[in-house]
Specification:
heterodimer; A: alpha+beta; SH3 type barrels; 2 helices; 6 strands; about 20% helix; about 40% strand; B: mainly alpha; two-stranded antiparallel sheet; 9 strands; elongated; disordered C terminus
Chain lengths: ~70, ~725
């Protein structure tokens, strides 16, 4: 399922990162790589704050939907 | 960030890390300033030595391909650069490929190698490298990084759970913003700004506020006595009495004043009913007090003659209470008069330079308080959360979550509002925010709005409320329209932002950030604002009367250069319903500072004594409202234009912003006048046709579908929150 649907506070393993090559690359640079862990800290109508690689990153719904966990 | 690491009780084995990476490591904390000098010194030392090649390796297949690429393309480069180029070629980095300009054959050959690896690892080459790097990083971290409470939530996360909560996020934000607004604009800021405008750049001020309260008590006790006496003098008195009681008259003497007042009381019949008028200083509104009886005259005369709570006859004088410090205009005026300077020079310095620049500098204390609070919110990490909370709301009309702050600040003054847009990293969003922020009615527009409301709408509060709604509607409509134009279209920038952990910023960082913004504003007041105020002053107070070019008195302004210019371009505003030179000139002087509109109209429409009545006879409610909306939405004052120019950092965009604002204002005011005329039976067929066409065009611009973006945004700029220098 996409990251937008993940429960707050649960640790998930990223299965796949989709989207256009640029978007994918950008997300990967931020630490969203297949096999990595990601935890949703907070969510507002699809926008999420996640913990990834010990950093806190806020991403919009459009981007979060491209991350499959 | 070592301070944070230590505080959390985490451990980094720097020695081990240094061995693994093959470089020396220095622990630093940018926030606290620890270890920075050592790091810089070591960097210099290392730079002098011969360079070592990096030690880490990728997995077998990738290394194999990279070795191939090195051999085929970059073997004639310096050894320590080969590997970097090879990896970039493997990633198909556009810039590097362009720079190397490889032969077609070589490229095809390499492409085969890359494709083979991609097939084997089932991913694209760029992702492979990224993944490999993360794998390498975690393999090193395993041996040298120990987190104390791994997996549990940090304090920062706990705060985030509350402040970015689905339900609490917006209310918390509203409270924080209210506090920021209240402290900077109402409590501390307003007091400071009033002191600057009315004190330092006004008549004067009480040192440390000593005497202010006694003075205001005295004024309250004195009340409208002067006006009441004037009202009776006008009906039952004569010029002699009027002159005798005028404190500012050269031949004023207390004994004469007392005698004159006795005379006035004698002359007034006991059943007299008189009308007297008072005028509001800010909005120039005149109020009539009818059926004033002789008893009120008697108490007014007593108040006039009273010397218990004031030192002399007449209205209390501020300078007699506490320690009175004269304002700069008074000091300069007295000084210039003492040295016998020419009238035009005194006028230029006081009415032109000090009044104009002072109006701008007057906002400085308010802005410094605001900048201080915003710098704190920014530095502690809350600002980036605000953007997150508001992003979905603002995205609906093409703005980013960060656009809210400039608009909020803009309610006080457009200049810091425009400057607050600096926190928006995405260029399109920032430009759009800059262009729309000044639609919000700023503090300086309030007196003028109140003036129109009072003169034409019976002081209805709905007028000023509607001004705020029109401002907001203008932002939303512009957001939707502009987002669909060529200049702004394209993928809405994806919202990605690294959030720093909450931390208490150092006082030094916050103060520096406040000062940087404040200072650039002050500098502006010294340059662009100074020049434009001199220009407007000159064109207002000079003109040709009876063939002579000379300086004009206040009541001769209709002969000024500005009046001539206003008369020449007034036709432009005919379709808006107020194509007179007075209204045109008022709008032009509004460019110096919007509160000037009130002053100018006061001078131009004040000949008959009652500004409101004159405005009421010159404007209809429709044309008055059109005038209000035009001045509300059109180009802001010079100070704000200067801020726009600075933030756009581009002359073309500055002009575009100003022209867009003025054009938009013109279109809306035009529609208001034409449609308003339709309802009030003042139909102009041609104008109405144009207005309908304009409305249809605007609706089309809003509802048309987004154009397919020709090219996807090439590079998504990584957005980093402003976290000082951490």
């Amino acid at each position: 399922m996409p990251l937008t649907l993940a429960n707050v506070g649960e640790e998930n393993i990223i299965k796949r990162v989709g989207g256009k090559p640029e978007v994918k690359q950008h997300l990967e640079n931020l630490g969203f790589i297949a096999g990595g862990n990601v935890t949703v800290i907070s969510a507002i109508s699809g926008n999420v704050i996640v913990k990834v690689k010990e950093a806190r990153v806020a991403i919009s719904r459009e981007m979060a939907q491209k991350i499959i966990v | 960030m070592m301070d944070v690491v230590r505080k959390n009780g985490d451990k980094i084995n720097t020695k081990q890390l240094s061995n693994e990476l093959g470089v020396e490591i220095i622990e630093i904390s940018a926030l606290k300033g620890d270890g920075i000098l050592e790091a810089a010194e070591l960097a210099i030392e290392v730079a002098k030595k011969a360079q070592k090649n990096p030690q880490h390796t990728f997995s077998g297949v990738v290394e194999h391909a990279i070795a191939h690429i090195e051999e085929a393309t970059v073997h004639n480069m310096p050894e320590n650069e080969q590997r970097w180029y090879a990896i970039k070629i493997f990633e198909r980095d556009e810039k590097v490929l362009e720079q190397l300009n490889l032969d077609y054959d070589v490229q095809a050959h390499i492409e085969e190698d890359i494709k083979a690896v991609e097939k084997e690892l089932d991913d694209d080459s760029e992702s492979i490298i990224t993944n490999e790097r993360y794998y390498y990083i975690s393999s090193i971290l395993k041996s040298c990084y120990k987190k104390k409470n791994a997996g549990s939530m940090s304090t920062s996360d706990k705060i985030d759970k509350v402040v970015t909560n689905r339900w609490l996020g917006l209310p918390i934000f509203a409270v924080v913003m209210f506090l920021v607004y209240y402290i900077s604009m109402v409590s501390v800021g307003l007091a400071a700004t009033d002191w600057m405008n009315d004190g330092v750049f006004g008549d004067g001020w009480h040192l440390f506020g000593i005497g202010s309260s006694q003075y205001s008590q005295a004024t309250d006790a004195y009340g409208d006595s002067d006006q009441i006496i004037d009202g009776f003098v006008a009906k039952y008195g004569n010029d002699k009495i009027a002159n005798a009681i005028d404190i500012e008259n050269e031949n004023y003497a207390e004994a004469n004043a007392k005698k004159a007042l006795e005379q006035l009381v004698d002359k007034t019949p006991s059943d007299a009913k008189v009308v007297y008028q008072t005028q509001d200083e800010e909005t120039l509104e005149v109020t009539y007090h009818e059926n004033t009886s002789k008893a009120e005259l008697n108490s007014a005369v007593l108040a006039y003659l009273n010397t218990d709570y004031k030192e002399a006859y007449g209205a209390p004088d501020t300078s007699n209470y506490g320690i009175w410090v004269l304002g700069i205009p008074v000091l300069v005026g007295n000084g210039l008069e003492a040295v016998g300077a020419a009238n035009w020079l005194i006028g230029l310095i006081n009415d032109g330079i000090i009044a104009g620049v002072g109006a701008v500098i007057g906002f400085v204390p308010q802005m410094l308080v605001l900048f201080l609070l915003l710098a704190f919110l920014e530095a502690c990490g809350y600002m980036s959360r605000i953007a997150f909370v508001l992003d979905r709301v603002f995205r609906k009309f093409g703005l980013s979550g960060k656009s809210f702050i400039p608009m909020l600040v803009g309610v006080g003054c457009g200049v810091p509002g425009v400057m607050a847009s600096r926190t928006i990293e995405n260029e399109r969003d920032r430009r759009m925010t800059i262009m729309t922020t000044t639609f919000i009615p700023c503090g300086a527009k309030v007196p003028f709005i109140a003036m129109i409301a009072g003169a034409l709408f019976g002081g209805s509060a709905l007028v000023s409320t509607s001004a705020y709604f029109i401002g907001m509607a203008a932002i939303i409509i512009s957001g939707i329209i502009l987002k669909k134009t060529k200049m702004f279209f394209g993928e809405p920038a994806p919202f990605v932002m690294e959030l720093p952990a909450y931390h208490l910023p150092t006082a030094k960082n916050v103060l520096r950030s406040m000062w940087e913004r404040g200072w650039s504003f002050i500098k502006k007041a010294g340059t662009i604002v100074l020049l434009s105020t001199i220009f407007i002053w000159f064109t207002t107070y000079f003109g040709i009367i009876n063939g002579d070019f000379r300086m004009l008195a206040e009541d001769e302004i209709d002969h000024s250069i500005l009046a001539a210019v206003g008369g020449a371009i007034a036709w432009i505003f005919k379709p808006l319903g107020w194509g007179t030179w007075e209204a045109t000139v008022a709008s032009i002087t509004g460019l110096i500072a919007k509160e000037n509109i009130v002053g100018t109209m006061g001078v131009l429409y004040g000949a008959s004594g009652n500004v409101y009545a004159t405005i009421g006879s010159v404007f209809t409610s429709v044309s008055g409202y059109s005038f209000l909306v035009f001045n509300l939405l059109c180009a802001p004052c010079f100070a704000a234009i200067g801020a726009i120019k600075r933030e756009m950092n581009n002359a073309k965009w500055t002009w575009f912003a100003i022209l867009y604002q003025s054009g938009f204002a013109y279109a809306i005011a035009f529609m208001i006048n034409q449609f308003g005329g339709m309802f009030t039976g003042n139909i102009n067929a041609i104008g109405l046709t144009f207005a309908f066409a304009l409305l249809a065009g605007m609706i089309y611009m809003m509802v048309r579908p987004y154009e397919e973006s020709v090219k996807p945004a090439k590079k998504i700029k990584q957005t980093k929150s402003l976290e000082g220098a951490v």
